[in-house]
Design a protein that fits this description.
3 helices, about 110 residues, single chain, about 30% strand
């Protein structure tokens, strides 16, 4: 697949103290909901080493249309609505146009 049309999302979320694992579980539910709709090529949820409440999220999409269609789906919106009560502050993030993508599957 060419990276010409790939779309990326990067986000940082800070959970309420002691709620990071709840937030991670919810984000994984969102991943499962998004995966049903296609177009999501990679999705990582990372716990920050230097802050027990911070979670970093990275998404790689086939294109922006796939992202927009999936994130507007009823399944994903249902999960997304549950995120704000777990947050200590407004999420931060950005969108990108993929210049290069390569890698191998993470070993669980």
């Amino acid at each position: 697949m060419s990276s010409d049309s790939m779309f990326s999302v990067y986000g940082r979320m800070t959970a309420l103290p002691g709620r990071r694992d709840d937030l991670i579980a919810l984000l994984l539910d969102g991943f499962r909901a998004a995966g049903e709709n296609g177009g999501l090529l990679a999705y990582t949820v990372n716990a920050a080493l230097d802050d027990p409440d911070t979670v970093w999220l990275t998404q790689l999409w086939a294109d922006k249309e796939a992202h927009d269609t999936t994130t507007r789906s009823e399944a994903v919106v249902g999960v997304t609505r549950q995120v704000p009560p777990l947050l200590a502050q407004q999420p931060e993030g950005c969108y990108g146009h993929v210049v290069h993508a390569a890698g191998q599957a993470a070993k669980g």
